[in-house]
Design a protein that fits this description.
spliceosome, secreted, mainly alpha, mRNA splicing, 4% strand, CTDL_fold, nucleus, 4 strands
Length: 304
């Protein structure tokens, strides 16, 4: 079908007249009915046509008009979209609040975890940034210390900052303080034992002296009873008895002196042995320190 030019001109004039008529009808509508919903319901679709030249633009325009044929359908389609948008915004706000609460809870948990770590590591460890330094009271060579650290999932302590070096120094000082406390406790126990032994010895000596005094009193009573004039034989017997008693006393005194001397000698020997042991231990420690310095490592500094 072919369309001639006069027919096209008549169609254009007809459309222009329709546009003028619509403008007049819109001006006559009252002001109370100017709401968007009433306006869309009372409005009509106006399509300005051009020359009949088929192409992609005309096809797209026709497809859009077929989808939205009237304003009532436009309103019906826009209402659920608004509801969806409102729900989505509410959900987003709720999610933001939940994320903030989770962040606060994570901060609290982190602080509690750090406090627990510090409580666990107070005597034998310290925390510096992301590293944890811990001391294990074990003895052995450098290789044994390295193997034990690897078994625990760590490495030997190698300070790389001032803070790390200070942490290791504090751990060492704590260990030295513990050793000093242990030594003091041992010394106190030894002193108590020595004092108890001396007290027991003094009690034994006092008991022996009391027994001797009782014997002397008994002898004096016997002498008084016999000293009422019964002859020379009795006097001789008394003298002999006195001599024997004196000899016994002298022997006892000698024995006591010997015991005291022996005890003093034993104590001196024990003290000498202790001093020798301490000197040997100090020498061994010095040798170990020298070896560790030569090898370039230490056993008491570890990272779990």
């Amino acid at each position: 079908m072919e369309i001639t030019k006069p027919n096209i001109q008549t169609m254009l004039t007809f459309l222009m007249l329709l546009q003028l008529a619509l403008e007049v009808s819109l001006q006559e509508t009252p002001k109370s009915a100017t709401s968007p919903q009433d306006w869309l319901q009372n409005a009509c679709t106006l399509i300005i046509c051009g020359p009949n030249e088929g192409g992609p633009r005309t096809e797209k325009a026709l497809q859009g008009l077929q989808q939205f044929s009237s304003p009532s359908e436009l309103l019906a389609n826009s209402a659920p979209n608004r509801e969806k948008l409102g729900r989505e915004t509410r959900e987003v706000e709720l999610l933001k609040l939940q994320v903030k609460e989770l962040q606060i809870q994570m901060g609290i948990l982190k602080a509690t975890f750090i406090n627990i770590q510090q409580a666990v590591l107070t005597p034998n460890g310290a925390i510096v940034d992301d590293k944890i330094f811990k001391r294990v009271d074990a003895k052995g060579d450098f290789q044994a210390a390295k193997n034990s650290c690897e078994h625990m999932g760590g490495n030997l302590a190698l300070p790389r900052n001032v803070a790390e070096n200070r942490a290791l120094q504090t751990i060492k000082k704590k260990k030295k303080k513990k050793k000093k406390k242990k030594k003091k406790k041992k010394k106190k126990k030894k002193k108590k034992k020595e004092e108890e032994e001396e007290e027991e010895e003094e009690e034994e000596e006092e008991e022996e002296e009391e027994e001797e005094e009782e014997e002397e009193e008994e002898e004096e009573e016997e002498e008084e009873e016999e000293g009422r004039g019964r002859g020379r034989r009795r006097r001789r017997r008394r003298r002999r008895r006195r001599r024997r008693r004196r000899r016994r006393r002298r022997r006892r005194r000698r024995r006591r002196r010997r015991r005291r001397r022996r005890r003093r000698r034993r104590r001196r020997r024990r003290r000498r042995r202790r001093r020798r042991r301490r000197r040997r231990r100090r020498r061994r420690r010095r040798r170990r320190r020298r070896r560790r310095r030569r090898r370039g490592g230490s056993l008491n500094q570890r990272i779990p």
